[in-house]
Write a structure and sequence with these properties.
It is a single chain. The protein has a domain of about 240 residues: NAD(P)-binding Rossmann-like Domain (Rossmann fold, 3-Layer(aba) Sandwich), CATH 3.40.50. It has twelve helices and twelve strands. The site of nicotinamide-adenine-dinucleotide has 30 residues, from α1, α4, β5 and β7.
């Protein structure tokens, strides 16, 4: 089996690559990644010399290159994670999201279709998506697989569009596919422009913690290795042409989350209790900020037996430990372009 993972040098992708390379020695795993600001091969140093692993630097927006790659390696399966993934960046540059998330996905679908359209037997295109396609919840309720799409940001609109294209290729061309929509991930290797790693870095540096609006926005957090395990299961056992919601049953307001993070970090850094909380600073809200996301993951639990394996407190502690052990990684990814982004976004 030749399996293509796109976006494998990113946060979630690197955990998926590691899991598949180490769990399935009889598969050959190809990791295709453009190495944008969010991609980092340092995330994969422990598997880079495995005999069943190949890294390919390349861009999913380049159709001819993608076609040639599929012809060359005859990928039996695709697990598609490559994307522009940051809501704040989508607000300042929506077109980058259209190019990668929509057009890049369609190029992959076309290449997969051209390769296997005479016989799709045993083939699968797995599209990894987000709960943000469902829009925002009020104070109650959960997103299920049948919740209507209602995206609010350019990021979520681009992901919703890509989900629709995948489904349309299934209906129109009989292409075997599966989609999953997951809630907020956290864990090792998370690029520090998203809430948890950004705040970990700022606490280490004793810099302000920029909470958007009043901080009463709610997210449902899942440890990234539990997501990677779910992706493995859905790829192998998920039913064709189905969607699976993946979530942590773990809702936190941003403010409560940040307080827990501050407490855990004060303990680990040997700082007085309450020290890091003093860094909390309320800043201008994100435009179109979704109030609440929460996933009902009953379907994947009942059909595939999946459930999260760690509590949030455990997962957060492991995450902090990883960042404290990998301060060089953190220093490298927060130099250069990151500083410019940070200035633009927060100053
Ligand atoms: P990330 O931004 O950390 O990584 C994205 C990867 O894609 C990077 O390695 C980047 O170099 C690569 N990439 C970007 N544009 C590319 C292009 N044009 N061609 C090839 N490679 C390209 O993202 P992530 O947080 O790991 O998310 C991965 C996927 O999971 C995305 O599709 C995202 O929508 C989805 N998702 C993320 C979360 C989350 O909480 N992070 C939750 C649910 C779903
Ligand atoms: O729900 C899944 C989605 O989760 C994924 O599809 C996205 O790829 C991923 O980036 C994430 O999106 P969010 O916008 O929820 O994540 P982010 O870490 O950017 O923000 C989490 C919450 O924290 C959100 O309510 C905004 C808030 N926030 C974020 C940052 C970066 C702040 O208050 N301050 C900040 O500086």
């Amino acid at each position: 089996m030749n399996i293509l993972i796109t976006g494998g040098a990113g946060f979630i992708g690197s955990h998926v690559v590691r899991r598949l390379v180490t769990t399935y020695p009889n598969y050959h795993i190809y990791n295709l990644d453009a190495l944008t600001y969010a991609g980092n091969l340092e995330n994969l140093t422990d598997v880079e010399s495995a005999s069943n692993y190949t890294f390919i630097k390349g861009d999913i927006t380049e159709a001819d290159f993608i076609d040639a790659l599929f012809q060359e390696h005859q990928f039996d399966g695709v697990i598609h994670l490559a994307a522009e993934s940051h809501v704040d960046r989508s607000i300042t540059d929506p077109m980058a999201f259209v190019k990668t998330n929509v057009m890049g996905t369609v190029h992959l679908l076309n290449a997969f279709k051209s390769l296997w359209q005479d016989n799709f037997e045993g083939k699968r295109f797995y599209h990894v998506s987000t709960d943000e396609v469902y829009g925002s919840l009020g104070k109650t309720g959960l997103f299920t697989e049948t919740t209507p799409y209602d995206p609010n940001s350019p990021y979520s609109a681009s992901k919703a569009s890509s989900d629709h294209f995948v489904r349309a290729y299934g209906e129109t061309y009989g292409m075997p596919y599966v989609i999953s929509n997951c809630s907020n991930n956290y864990g090792p290797n998370h690029f520090p422009e998203k809430l948890i790693p950004l705040f970990i870095n700022n606490i280490i540096q004793k810099q302000p913690l920029p909470v958007y609006g009043d901080g009463n926005y709610t997210r449902d957090w899942l440890y990234v290795k539990d997501h990677a395990r779910a992706i493995d299961l859905v790829y192998h056992k998920g039913k064709n042409a189905e969607t699976y919601n993946i979530g942590g049953f773990n809702e936190w307001t941003n403010l409560n989350l940040v307080k827990l993070l501050c407490q855990q970090m004060d303990e680990k850094l040997g700082r007085p209790t309450g020290d890091s909380e003093k860094l909390i600073t309320y800043v201008k809200d994100r435009p179109g900020h979704d109030l609440r996301y929460a996933i009902d993951s009953t379907k994947i639990h009942k059909e595939l037996g999946w459930k999260p394996s760690v509590t949030f407190e455990e997962g957060l502690a492991k995450t902090i430990d990883w960042y404290l052990k990998n301060e060089e990684w953190l220093a490298r990814v927060t130099s250069g372009d990151y500083r410019e982004y940070y200035e633009r976004q927060y100053k």
